[in-house]
């Protein structure tokens, strides 16, 4: 067995995790599903699955989205929690089991963005960003990835950013967190390449979401000219391009979307 490869169960045998989940249904879990990119990803993912778990802090927004998805035939369930809490992973996994699901695909979309000089922003708020953008994303990935590998199917979609490829004064911790997401995702993708599981990092540019609108990013563009030059893309366009780029299943189209979205929005 080559270094770094993951050992698969012997032919004809059923992995222990698969036997323990025999009565459970596969579900797609989307964090940060209440608005913006997560909202659009949940809508599109719903067309490729029958069960979903929608996670975010806003119960009202989640309930509205769940009602929309349920009306189109998806069994959509909501879980209003704060991923900054250290027990969020346990809460999500328990909620899945209580509803008769296991995590087949995890969409780690939830995130926090702060703008301003690191020395002036609150330390607590910046560490909370690290908790959500790095710790929670890593914890959920590492929690559900072993089961995916054992089953020989599944997917991890992590929301990165074009900011992962550049440093940005006034957004130091945010850009650093996205650089982590990109590196973490690339390494895991290589590790699981032959297992039937995919790990993808989606890295859009500046997208018009409530999170971005609250930050007034253009006010910080003087210290980061590349940020000021970027076009702002509506989240609906993310969903539209995502839908056109997909192939036959949720697991196959995220890389194609990333390539198409990046070049169509930020080339030239």
How would you characterize this protein structure?
It is a single chain. This protein is α/β, with parallel strands linked by helices. It has a single domain, classed as Rossmann fold. The protein has ten helices and six strands; from the N terminus they run αβαβαβαβαβαβαααα. It has a six-stranded parallel β-sheet with strand order 3-2-1-4-5-6, sandwiched between helices. Helix 2 links the parallel strand 1 and strand 2. Helix 2 packs parallel to helix 9, helix 5 runs parallel beside helix 6 and helix 9 packs across helix 10. The N and C termini lie far apart (45 Å).
Give the count of helical stretches: 10
Task: Please state how the strands of the largest beta sheet are arranged side by side.
Answer: 3-2-1-4-5-6
Global mean pLDDT: 78
Strand fraction band? 5-15%
CATH superfamily, by name, is NAD(P)-binding Rossmann-like Domain
What overall geometry do the principal axes of the alpha carbons give? globular
Cα-atom radius of gyration: 18 Å
Please give the number of β-strands: 6
For this structure, what is the CATH class?
A: Alpha Beta
Structural class: alpha/beta
The helix content is 40-55%
Low-confidence stretches: 225-239, 241-268
CATH topology: Rossmann fold
Most strands sheet:
6 strands, parallel
Order of helices and strands: HEHEHEHEHEHEHHHH
Termini distance?
45 Å
Supply the CATH architecture. 3-Layer(aba) Sandwich
Tally of discrete structural domains: 1
């Amino acid at each position: 067995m080559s270094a770094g490869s993951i050992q698969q169960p012997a032919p004809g045998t059923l992995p222990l995790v698969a036997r323990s989940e025999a009565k459970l249904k596969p579900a797609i879990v989307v964090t940060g599903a209440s608005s913006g990119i997560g909202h659009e990803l949940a809508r599109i993912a719903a067309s490729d699955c029958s069960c979903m778990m929608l996670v975010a802090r806003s119960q009202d927004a989640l309930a509205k989205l769940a009602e929309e998805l349920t009306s189109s035939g998806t069994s959509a369930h909501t879980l209003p929690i704060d991923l900054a809490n250290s027990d969020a992973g346990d809460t999500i996994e328990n909620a899945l089991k209580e509803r008769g699901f296991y995590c087949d695909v995890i969409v780690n979309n939830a995130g926090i963005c702060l703008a301003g000089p690191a020395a002036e922003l609150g330390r607590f708020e910046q560490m909370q960003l690290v908790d959500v953008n790095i710790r929670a994303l890593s914890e959920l990935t590492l929690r559900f990835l072993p089961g995916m590998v054992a089953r020989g199917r599944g997917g991890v979609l992590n929301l990165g950013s074009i900011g992962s490829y550049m440093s940005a004064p006034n957004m130091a911790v945010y850009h650093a967190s996205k650089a982590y997401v990109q590196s973490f995702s690339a390494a895991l993708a290589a590790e699981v390449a032959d297992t039937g599981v995919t790990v993808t990092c989606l890295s859009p540019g500046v997208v018009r979401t409530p999170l971005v609108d609250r930050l007034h990013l253009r006010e910080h563009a003087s210290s980061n000219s590349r940020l000021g030059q970027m076009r702002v893309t509506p989240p609906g366009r993310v969903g539209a391009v995502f839908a056109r780029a997909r192939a036959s299943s949720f697991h196959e189209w995220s890389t194609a979307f990333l390539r198409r979205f990046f070049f169509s929005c930020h080339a030239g």
